[in-house]
Amino acid sequence: MSPSEVIAAPEGQRETFVLNLGPQHPATHGVLRLKLTMDGEFIVRAEPVCGYIHRMHEKMAENRSYAQFLPNTSRIDYLSAMTYTHAFVGAVERAAKLEVPPRAEFIRVITSELNRISSHLVWLGAYLLDLGGFTPLLYAFDDREKILDLLEGVTGARLTYCYYRFGGVCNDVDEAFTRGTKEFVAYMRPRLDMYRALVTDNIILRKRLVGIAPISAETCRKYGATGPVIRGSGVAYDVRRREPYSAYPLFDFEVPNFPEGDCMARYLVRMEEMAQSLRIIEQAVDRLPEGPVMATAVPRVLKLPAGDVAYAVEAARGRFMVHIVSDNKEIPYRVKLRTPSLSNLSLFEEASQGLVLPDAVALLGSLDLVIPDIDR
Amino acid sequence: MNPDSPQAHEESAAASAGQPGGNGASGPSVLVGPPALDQHTPLLALLEQGLASEQGGSSVEAPALAGKAVDFASRGYHVEMTVAPERVVLAAQLMDSSGFALDTITGVDWLAEGQMELLYDYFHPESPTRVLVRCRVPRAAPEAPTISAVFPGANWHERETHEFLGIRFQGHPNLTPFLLPEDADYHPLRKDYAA
After folding, report:
1. What ranges in chain A are assigned the alpha helix state H?
2. Using the beta-carbon criterion (under 8 Å), do A333 and B108 form an inter-chain contact?
C-alpha cells in the first residue's frame, strides 16, 4: 500500500491505532509530544501537543521594566540567544529612537552570525543522531566549542547571552576576540568541506533525505513557516534582506535556497548558510570601525511612546519578531513574541500525512525545533 | 500585484549601503537603510481599493476601512488597517490573494476601555512589506470569526489567543488550550488576572 492509498482509504476500511511519541523522546528534541494515528507503518494524522515547558514570558514582560525583561529573551530559543536579544533591543531602540554606534552594529552582526553557526552545528549533530549517525555529533560539538569559547570571552556567557543592550553592546570586543574570530573562520572553512565529504555526500544520508517529506512554497506561506524551511522550498525569504536591520545591508552574502522542498533541501540550506555566515563574519571583522559601543544618551528609565512597534530578525530558525504595545509607562503594556519554531511546527500535521514513522522523524529534525521557542 | 521585485529592492538596499555618509547623517541611519515607503504605495492603493470595492457592493453601513501608511523606520510595519470584526476574514482573504503570509495573531486587553484588540501581523515572502490589521471587540463578549480557513497557520495562533485572553474565534475547528493545561479555565494575559 502506497502512502497516497493510505490517505485515500475510506474511514471504515482503515484499521488505525494511536502511537504516542514523547513528551520524553530523543527525536522530539525537547518536551514535545506527538499523538500519531497510524495505519500500520504509515501516519494518518499527527497531532503535536505543546506546552510542557510553558513559562508565560509574555505575562512576565507585563510585570517588569524593559531592561528587566531583556534577559528573558535569551531564554526563549536558547540556541540563538544573540538574535533573540537583538530583536528585543531593536524594538526598543526603534521606538525610543536610540542611535546605535556603527561599531556596536558590526559587533552585533559578528556575534549573531557566530551564534547562527553554533546553532546550526547543534542542529547538524542532533539531526544526524536522529538519523542514526553518532560520529558527526562529536565533530559538530567540537567545532561549536570554539565558538562558545570566543563568545564566552566577550560576553561572559556560553549559552544564554545577554550581551546586547539598548543603544549598543555592554562590552567592547578586544584584540583576542577579533584574532580568534579570524582564526575560527580560517579553521571552519575546511571543516565545512570535510562535512560535505563525510556527511552530505554519504549515500546513506542521501537515501534518508532526498525526496522525503517535500513541502511546497505555498504550504510554507499558508502556515507562516520561515527560515531554512521556506528557503528549502525555493523562496529566498530572509529578514536580513527583506527588512534590512543592523549593519546587514553593508555586507555581501547570498541567501541559499533550494527548490526541491524535501529534507535534503532543508539540510543543504543550513550547511550553505554556515558558509555564508563565515563570509559575513570575515567582512565585518576586517571592516570593524573604531568608536564607542554604546549610544551616549540612553535614559536610565526607559519609557516608550504610546503605540505599537515591531522588530523582526532572522534567527537561526527563521523569522523572530517582537511586537511591543506601549502605553508610555516604564513597563510594557503587552509584548508579543512571534517565534519561528511554532509556525514551522504548525505545518507538521499536513506535511507528515502518509509518511512512514522514520521519515516523519527525518521531517521533524529538518524543521530544527527548539521546544522552549514554541512554548515560551 | 507585486511591482517592486525583490531583486530591485536588494539592489537599492545595496546601493544605499554602498555610500556610507552619503546623506551627511552619522552612523545608524546609513547602516540600516530601511525600505523606502514610496515603494509600497501601489500596495497601499490596492488595499484601499480592495476594501472600498467590497464596501460599495454591500448595503451594510460599515465604518470606513482603508489601509494607512505607517513610518516603517519608527514602527516596524508599512501599512496599518483597522477593521470591524466581521471584516477580519475579508482582510485575510485580501492578504492571501496578494501573496502575504500570516506572521502572527495576538490580542491586547484594554481593560480601562472595556475592549479587547486583535492584532494580525502579515509579512510578504517575496516583497519587503509588513501589514498590521487591527480589530477591536467588546471585552464583555470578545468574539471574532476565525481566519483558519484562509490561513491554516492561524489555527494555533487563535488557540493561543483564546486561552491567553479569552477571545473566542467563531468557526474555529478546535478551540482547545494550546500551551496551557487542558483543563485551564483562566486567561492569564487579561489585565485583571494577577500574576
Report:
1. 3-8, 57-61, 66-73, 81-96, 102-130, 135-155, 175-195, 203-209, 217-223, 228-231, 239-242, 263-286, 340-346, 348-351, 357-366, 371-375
2. yes
Are the Cβ atoms of A250 and B101 closer than 8 angstroms?
no
Q: Which among B75, B179, B195 has the least Cβ separation from residue A50?
A: B179
Candidates A220, A325, A342; nearest CB to B108? A325
Q: Decide if A235 and B125 are in contact by the 8 Å CB cutoff.
A: yes
Residue A310: list chain B partners with CB under 8 A. Answer: 75-77, 121, 130, 132
Cross-chain residue pair B76–A223, CB shorter than 8 Å:
no
Rounded Cα–Cα distance for residues B166 and B186 (Å): 8
- pTM value? 0.83
A97 → chain B, closest CA residue: B74
How far off is chain A from B56, nearest CA to CA, in Å? 29
What residues have CB less than 8 Å from A167, skipping those under 6 apart?
A93, A98, A99, A100, A104, A294, A295, A298
pLDDT in tens, A27-51: 777 788 899 998 888 898 899 998 8
Mind telling me how many Å the CA of B28 is from chain A's nearest CA?
A: 6
Nearest Cα neighbor of A77 from A44, A112, A109 is: A112
- Helix B41-57 / helix B88-97 crossing angle, nearest 10 deg: 130
Give the closest-approach CA distance of A203 to chain B in angstroms.
Answer: 33
Query: What distance, in Å, lies between the first and last C-alpha atoms of chain A?
Result: 40
Return the bridge partners of B104, or none.
B121
**Per-residue pLDDT tens digits for A289-336:** 888 888 888 888 888 888 899 999 999 999 999 999 998 888 999 999
Q: How confident is the model at residue B28 (pLDDT cuts 50, 70, 90)?
A: very low
Q: Which residue has the higher pLDDT, A30 or A278?
A: A278
The amino acid occupying position A268 is L
Report the range of poorest mean pLDDT among A237-241, B41-45, B157-161: B41-45
Cell triple for residue A151? 563568545
Kindly indicate whether the ipTM for this predicted assembly is greater than 0.90, answering yes or no: no
What's the CA gap between B58 and B22, in Å, rounded? 51
Q: Give domain limits for chain B.
A: 37-170
pLDDT, chain A, mean: 89
| B37-170: CATH number | 3.30.460.80
Superfamily of domain A57-374: Cytochrome-c3 Hydrogenase, chain B (1.10.645.10)
Is A101's CB within 8 Å of B27's CB? yes
What does DSSP say about strands B168-170 and B143-145: parallel, antiparallel, or unpaired?
parallel
Dist CA B26 CA A302 (whole Å): 23
Residue B18 is predicted with a pLDDT of 36
- Mean pLDDT, residues B15-35 taken together: 36
Contact A321 B119 (CB under 8 A): no
Of A233, A253, A232, A207, give the one whose Cα is nearest residue A358: A207
